Amino acid sequence: MLLKVHRWLALSIGIVIMVSAVTGVLLTLGKPLDRIVNASLFVGGPQQVPYQAFVDAVRTTYGPDTQVRLRFPAESGGTVEAYVKTKIWDGSAYFDPATAALVGARAKDEGFYNFIFELHSDLFLHDVGEVILTVAGTAFIIMLITGLFLWWPRKWRFAFRVNFKGNVTALLFDGHRVAGAVFGLFVLVSVFTGTYLVWKPIATWVTAMAGQTPNKPPVLPKDPARKLLPDAPLDTILAHANVAVPGGRLVDITYPKDEQSSLRVRKHLEGDPHPNGQTYIWMNPKTAEVLKKTKWNEGDLGTRVQGWGYPYHSGRLFGTANLVFTGFIGLVLVWYGISGILLWWKRRRSR
Known about the structure:
With about 350 residues, the chain is of the alpha+beta class. It folds into 3 domains: about 1-5 and about 125-210 and about 310-350, no CATH class; about 40-110, no CATH class; about 225-300, Nuclear Transport Factor 2, Chain: A (Roll), CATH 3.10.450. It has 10 helices and 8 strands. It has helices at about 1-35, 40, 50-60, 110-120, 125-150, 170-200, 200-210, 235-245, 300-315, 320-350; strands at about 70, 80-85, 90-95, 100-105, 250-255, 265-270, 280-285, 290-295. An 8-stranded antiparallel β-sheet has the order 4-3-2-1-5-6-7-8. Helix 1 (about 1-35) crosses helix 10. The two termini are about 20 Å apart.
Protein backbone atom coordinates (compact mmCIF):
# COMPACT_ATOMS: atom_id res chain seq x y z
CA MET A 1 0.00 0.00 0.00
CA LEU A 2 2.76 2.46 0.95
CA LEU A 3 4.63 1.64 -2.25
CA LYS A 4 1.53 2.39 -4.34
CA VAL A 5 0.99 5.72 -2.58
CA HIS A 6 4.66 6.60 -3.05
CA ARG A 7 4.66 5.61 -6.71
CA TRP A 8 1.42 7.25 -7.78
CA LEU A 9 2.13 10.47 -5.98
CA ALA A 10 5.45 10.56 -7.83
CA LEU A 11 3.80 9.94 -11.18
CA SER A 12 1.15 12.59 -10.44
CA ILE A 13 3.31 15.49 -9.30
CA GLY A 14 6.79 14.36 -10.32
CA ILE A 15 7.11 16.72 -13.28
CA VAL A 16 6.27 19.75 -11.09
CA ILE A 17 8.82 18.72 -8.48
CA MET A 18 11.45 18.13 -11.16
CA VAL A 19 10.85 21.60 -12.64
CA SER A 20 11.14 23.12 -9.15
CA ALA A 21 14.33 21.19 -8.43
CA VAL A 22 16.07 22.01 -11.72
CA THR A 23 15.12 25.68 -11.60
CA GLY A 24 16.17 25.83 -7.94
CA VAL A 25 19.63 24.53 -8.82
CA LEU A 26 19.88 27.02 -11.70
CA LEU A 27 18.90 29.89 -9.40
CA THR A 28 21.83 29.19 -7.08
CA LEU A 29 24.10 29.80 -10.08
CA GLY A 30 21.93 32.26 -11.96
CA LYS A 31 22.16 35.35 -9.78
CA PRO A 32 25.98 35.65 -9.78
CA LEU A 33 26.05 34.92 -13.52
CA ASP A 34 23.28 37.45 -14.15
CA ARG A 35 25.34 40.16 -12.47
CA ILE A 36 28.33 39.27 -14.65
CA VAL A 37 26.48 39.01 -17.96
CA ASN A 38 24.34 42.11 -17.32
CA ALA A 39 26.90 44.11 -15.37
CA SER A 40 25.70 47.42 -16.83
CA LEU A 41 22.44 47.06 -14.91
CA PHE A 42 24.10 46.49 -11.56
CA VAL A 43 27.15 48.79 -11.48
CA GLY A 44 26.79 52.38 -10.28
CA GLY A 45 28.67 55.07 -8.42
CA PRO A 46 28.38 56.11 -4.77
CA GLN A 47 25.14 57.90 -3.94
CA GLN A 48 25.44 61.66 -4.42
CA VAL A 49 21.83 62.70 -5.03
CA PRO A 50 18.87 63.00 -2.64
CA TYR A 51 16.58 60.00 -2.30
CA GLN A 52 13.75 62.03 -3.77
CA ALA A 53 15.66 62.16 -7.06
CA PHE A 54 14.97 58.45 -7.65
CA VAL A 55 11.23 58.89 -7.12
CA ASP A 56 11.24 61.82 -9.54
CA ALA A 57 13.26 59.81 -12.09
CA VAL A 58 10.81 56.89 -12.00
CA ARG A 59 7.75 59.10 -12.38
CA THR A 60 9.37 61.16 -15.12
CA THR A 61 10.24 58.01 -17.06
CA TYR A 62 7.10 55.93 -16.51
CA GLY A 63 4.40 58.47 -15.67
CA PRO A 64 3.36 60.58 -12.68
CA ASP A 65 0.86 57.97 -11.42
CA THR A 66 3.38 55.11 -11.34
CA GLN A 67 3.46 53.38 -7.97
CA VAL A 68 7.07 53.53 -6.80
CA ARG A 69 9.01 50.78 -5.10
CA LEU A 70 12.75 51.33 -4.78
CA ARG A 71 15.33 48.76 -3.68
CA PHE A 72 18.72 50.10 -2.66
CA PRO A 73 22.03 48.26 -3.14
CA ALA A 74 23.29 46.21 -0.21
CA GLU A 75 26.84 47.37 -0.94
CA SER A 76 28.37 50.49 -2.43
CA GLY A 77 28.84 50.29 -6.18
CA GLY A 78 25.43 48.84 -7.00
CA THR A 79 22.38 50.43 -8.62
CA VAL A 80 18.97 51.41 -7.30
CA GLU A 81 16.31 49.05 -8.64
CA ALA A 82 12.81 50.38 -9.22
CA TYR A 83 10.01 47.84 -9.56
CA VAL A 84 7.64 49.29 -12.14
CA LYS A 85 4.19 48.08 -13.12
CA THR A 86 2.11 50.06 -15.59
CA LYS A 87 -0.79 49.13 -17.85
CA ILE A 88 1.61 48.17 -20.63
CA TRP A 89 4.82 47.08 -18.86
CA ASP A 90 5.94 45.14 -15.80
CA GLY A 91 9.60 44.99 -14.88
CA SER A 92 12.60 46.64 -13.23
CA ALA A 93 14.39 49.87 -14.03
CA TYR A 94 17.92 50.53 -12.76
CA PHE A 95 19.26 53.95 -11.73
CA ASP A 96 22.79 55.12 -10.99
CA PRO A 97 22.99 56.24 -7.31
CA ALA A 98 25.47 58.94 -8.26
CA THR A 99 23.19 60.75 -10.71
CA ALA A 100 19.73 59.09 -10.58
CA ALA A 101 20.15 58.49 -14.32
CA LEU A 102 18.44 55.47 -15.87
CA VAL A 103 21.10 52.90 -16.82
CA GLY A 104 18.78 50.16 -18.11
CA ALA A 105 15.52 48.29 -17.74
CA ARG A 106 14.12 44.84 -18.40
CA ALA A 107 10.75 43.12 -18.18
CA LYS A 108 9.83 40.90 -15.25
CA ASP A 109 10.50 37.69 -17.20
CA GLU A 110 13.29 39.01 -19.44
CA GLY A 111 16.70 37.38 -19.23
CA PHE A 112 17.76 33.93 -18.06
CA TYR A 113 17.65 34.60 -14.32
CA ASN A 114 14.25 36.31 -14.36
CA PHE A 115 12.80 33.58 -16.58
CA ILE A 116 14.02 30.83 -14.24
CA PHE A 117 12.87 32.75 -11.15
CA GLU A 118 9.32 33.19 -12.49
CA LEU A 119 9.16 29.53 -13.50
CA HIS A 120 10.40 28.45 -10.07
CA SER A 121 8.06 30.81 -8.20
CA ASP A 122 4.71 30.22 -9.90
CA LEU A 123 5.24 28.30 -13.19
CA PHE A 124 4.17 31.50 -15.04
CA LEU A 125 0.64 30.78 -13.81
CA HIS A 126 0.58 33.32 -10.95
CA ASP A 127 -2.03 32.34 -8.31
CA VAL A 128 -2.87 29.07 -10.06
CA GLY A 129 0.82 28.20 -10.23
CA GLU A 130 1.22 28.86 -6.52
CA VAL A 131 -1.64 26.46 -5.78
CA ILE A 132 -0.08 23.80 -8.01
CA LEU A 133 3.31 24.20 -6.32
CA THR A 134 1.69 24.02 -2.87
CA VAL A 135 -0.20 20.82 -3.72
CA ALA A 136 2.94 19.33 -5.28
CA GLY A 137 5.08 20.30 -2.27
CA THR A 138 2.58 18.79 0.17
CA ALA A 139 2.36 15.60 -1.88
CA PHE A 140 6.14 15.36 -2.00
CA ILE A 141 6.39 15.66 1.78
CA ILE A 142 4.01 12.67 1.98
CA MET A 143 6.25 10.86 -0.52
CA LEU A 144 9.30 11.47 1.65
CA ILE A 145 7.51 10.09 4.70
CA THR A 146 6.29 6.99 2.85
CA GLY A 147 9.78 6.60 1.39
CA LEU A 148 11.24 6.56 4.90
CA PHE A 149 8.90 3.76 5.94
CA LEU A 150 9.70 1.81 2.77
CA TRP A 151 13.44 2.20 3.39
CA TRP A 152 13.36 1.37 7.14
CA PRO A 153 15.63 -1.68 7.36
CA ARG A 154 15.15 -4.93 9.21
CA LYS A 155 18.92 -5.34 9.35
CA TRP A 156 20.80 -2.07 9.80
CA ARG A 157 24.06 -3.35 8.37
CA PHE A 158 22.43 -3.24 4.93
CA ALA A 159 20.67 0.08 5.50
CA PHE A 160 23.14 2.25 3.57
CA ARG A 161 24.62 -0.31 1.21
CA VAL A 162 24.74 0.38 -2.51
CA ASN A 163 25.50 -2.70 -4.61
CA PHE A 164 27.74 -1.44 -7.43
CA LYS A 165 28.28 -5.00 -8.70
CA GLY A 166 24.61 -5.70 -9.40
CA ASN A 167 22.59 -4.88 -12.49
CA VAL A 168 21.37 -1.40 -13.41
CA THR A 169 17.99 -1.88 -11.72
CA ALA A 170 19.59 -2.90 -8.44
CA LEU A 171 21.99 0.04 -8.60
CA LEU A 172 19.11 2.46 -9.27
CA PHE A 173 17.08 0.97 -6.43
CA ASP A 174 19.92 1.16 -3.90
CA GLY A 175 20.89 4.66 -5.04
CA HIS A 176 17.30 5.87 -4.79
CA ARG A 177 16.61 4.52 -1.31
CA VAL A 178 20.03 5.37 0.22
CA ALA A 179 19.95 8.93 -1.14
CA GLY A 180 16.46 9.23 0.30
CA ALA A 181 17.59 8.02 3.71
CA VAL A 182 20.77 10.12 3.88
CA PHE A 183 19.51 13.39 2.44
CA GLY A 184 15.76 13.05 2.99
CA LEU A 185 15.65 15.37 6.01
CA PHE A 186 17.47 18.17 4.14
CA VAL A 187 15.21 17.72 1.11
CA LEU A 188 12.19 17.76 3.42
CA VAL A 189 13.23 21.09 4.96
CA SER A 190 13.92 22.55 1.51
CA VAL A 191 10.53 21.44 0.13
CA PHE A 192 8.69 22.55 3.28
CA THR A 193 10.26 26.01 3.27
CA GLY A 194 9.52 26.37 -0.43
CA THR A 195 5.88 25.41 0.13
CA TYR A 196 5.68 27.76 3.11
CA LEU A 197 7.01 30.67 1.07
CA VAL A 198 4.88 30.10 -2.00
CA TRP A 199 1.53 29.72 -0.22
CA LYS A 200 1.06 32.81 1.94
CA PRO A 201 -1.94 31.52 4.00
CA ILE A 202 0.37 29.01 5.73
CA ALA A 203 2.10 31.87 7.60
CA THR A 204 -1.32 33.20 8.62
CA TRP A 205 -2.30 29.76 9.94
CA VAL A 206 0.94 29.49 11.94
CA THR A 207 0.30 32.91 13.46
CA ALA A 208 -3.28 31.98 14.34
CA MET A 209 -2.19 28.67 15.94
CA ALA A 210 0.23 30.67 18.09
CA GLY A 211 -2.69 32.78 19.28
CA GLN A 212 -1.34 35.89 17.58
CA THR A 213 -2.73 38.43 15.14
CA PRO A 214 -1.00 38.90 11.76
CA ASN A 215 1.06 42.06 11.57
CA LYS A 216 -0.82 44.28 9.10
CA PRO A 217 0.08 47.74 7.80
CA PRO A 218 -1.95 50.64 9.15
CA VAL A 219 -4.80 52.04 7.07
CA LEU A 220 -5.28 55.79 6.80
CA PRO A 221 -8.80 57.16 7.32
CA LYS A 222 -10.75 58.24 4.26
CA ASP A 223 -10.05 61.86 3.39
CA PRO A 224 -10.78 63.16 -0.13
CA ALA A 225 -8.59 66.19 0.53
CA ARG A 226 -5.51 64.03 1.09
CA LYS A 227 -5.27 63.21 -2.60
CA LEU A 228 -4.73 66.88 -3.37
CA LEU A 229 -1.74 67.14 -1.05
CA PRO A 230 1.78 66.54 -2.40
CA ASP A 231 3.90 63.73 -0.99
CA ALA A 232 6.48 64.73 1.60
CA PRO A 233 10.06 64.64 0.24
CA LEU A 234 11.43 61.12 0.54
CA ASP A 235 14.50 62.39 2.38
CA THR A 236 12.23 63.85 5.08
CA ILE A 237 10.29 60.59 5.31
CA LEU A 238 13.51 58.62 5.75
CA ALA A 239 14.83 61.05 8.37
CA HIS A 240 11.70 60.44 10.46
CA ALA A 241 11.93 56.67 9.88
CA ASN A 242 15.55 56.66 11.07
CA VAL A 243 14.56 58.46 14.26
CA ALA A 244 11.88 55.81 14.88
CA VAL A 245 14.25 52.92 14.13
CA PRO A 246 17.90 54.03 14.25
CA GLY A 247 20.69 52.18 12.48
CA GLY A 248 20.54 49.29 10.10
CA ARG A 249 20.62 49.25 6.31
CA LEU A 250 17.91 50.76 4.14
CA VAL A 251 16.57 47.96 1.92
CA ASP A 252 13.57 49.35 0.09
CA ILE A 253 10.74 51.84 0.05
CA THR A 254 7.24 51.07 -1.18
CA TYR A 255 4.88 53.91 -1.96
CA PRO A 256 1.16 53.31 -1.31
CA LYS A 257 -1.10 51.92 -4.00
CA ASP A 258 -4.08 54.07 -2.95
CA GLU A 259 -4.97 57.01 -0.71
CA GLN A 260 -5.69 54.88 2.36
CA SER A 261 -2.50 52.81 2.23
CA SER A 262 0.66 53.80 4.05
CA LEU A 263 4.21 54.14 2.75
CA ARG A 264 6.53 51.34 3.90
CA VAL A 265 10.22 51.68 4.75
CA ARG A 266 12.09 48.38 5.04
CA LYS A 267 15.39 47.99 6.88
CA HIS A 268 17.83 45.24 7.75
CA LEU A 269 19.01 45.38 11.35
CA GLU A 270 21.86 43.48 12.93
CA GLY A 271 20.90 39.93 13.85
CA ASP A 272 18.09 39.63 11.30
CA PRO A 273 18.51 36.30 9.43
CA HIS A 274 16.53 37.51 6.42
CA PRO A 275 19.01 38.98 3.88
CA ASN A 276 16.50 41.66 2.88
CA GLY A 277 15.46 42.47 6.43
CA GLN A 278 12.08 42.26 8.13
CA THR A 279 12.00 45.55 10.00
CA TYR A 280 9.21 47.78 8.74
CA ILE A 281 8.27 51.40 9.40
CA TRP A 282 4.92 52.51 8.00
CA MET A 283 4.58 56.21 7.27
CA ASN A 284 2.00 58.75 6.20
CA PRO A 285 3.39 59.74 2.76
CA LYS A 286 1.90 63.22 2.95
CA THR A 287 3.11 64.24 6.43
CA ALA A 288 6.08 61.88 7.02
CA GLU A 289 4.42 60.84 10.30
CA VAL A 290 5.44 57.41 11.64
CA LEU A 291 2.26 55.34 11.91
CA LYS A 292 3.69 52.00 13.02
CA LYS A 293 7.01 50.22 13.37
CA THR A 294 7.87 46.54 13.75
CA LYS A 295 11.38 45.22 14.19
CA TRP A 296 12.32 41.84 12.74
CA ASN A 297 12.14 40.08 16.13
CA GLU A 298 8.80 41.67 17.07
CA GLY A 299 6.66 40.37 14.21
CA ASP A 300 4.07 37.61 14.35
CA LEU A 301 5.27 34.00 14.41
CA GLY A 302 4.28 33.24 10.83
CA THR A 303 6.40 36.11 9.55
CA ARG A 304 9.35 35.21 11.79
CA VAL A 305 9.31 31.63 10.49
CA GLN A 306 9.35 33.11 7.00
CA GLY A 307 12.36 35.18 8.02
CA TRP A 308 14.36 32.00 8.66
CA GLY A 309 12.78 29.90 5.91
CA TYR A 310 13.60 32.25 3.02
CA PRO A 311 17.37 32.48 3.60
CA TYR A 312 17.58 28.72 4.18
CA HIS A 313 15.59 27.89 1.07
CA SER A 314 17.55 30.33 -1.09
CA GLY A 315 20.92 29.23 0.34
CA ARG A 316 21.71 32.58 1.96
CA LEU A 317 21.52 31.71 5.65
CA PHE A 318 25.09 30.50 6.22
CA GLY A 319 27.01 32.14 3.39
CA THR A 320 28.61 30.44 0.39
CA ALA A 321 28.66 26.98 2.00
CA ASN A 322 24.87 27.13 2.43
CA LEU A 323 24.45 28.21 -1.22
CA VAL A 324 26.56 25.31 -2.49
CA PHE A 325 24.76 22.83 -0.22
CA THR A 326 21.36 24.12 -1.35
CA GLY A 327 22.35 23.56 -4.97
CA PHE A 328 23.53 20.05 -4.07
CA ILE A 329 20.22 19.25 -2.35
CA GLY A 330 18.47 20.39 -5.52
CA LEU A 331 20.56 17.90 -7.49
CA VAL A 332 19.63 15.17 -4.99
CA LEU A 333 15.98 15.99 -5.63
CA VAL A 334 16.60 15.70 -9.37
CA TRP A 335 18.21 12.30 -8.73
CA TYR A 336 15.13 11.16 -6.81
CA GLY A 337 13.02 11.98 -9.83
CA ILE A 338 15.28 10.42 -12.47
CA SER A 339 15.98 7.23 -10.55
CA GLY A 340 12.33 6.86 -9.53
CA ILE A 341 11.08 7.25 -13.10
CA LEU A 342 13.67 4.77 -14.42
CA LEU A 343 12.72 2.24 -11.75
CA TRP A 344 9.04 2.58 -12.62
CA TRP A 345 9.75 2.29 -16.36
CA LYS A 346 11.93 -0.81 -15.91
CA ARG A 347 9.25 -2.39 -13.72
CA ARG A 348 6.62 -1.82 -16.42
CA ARG A 349 8.86 -3.29 -19.11
CA SER A 350 9.51 -6.39 -17.06
CA ARG A 351 5.80 -7.21 -16.78
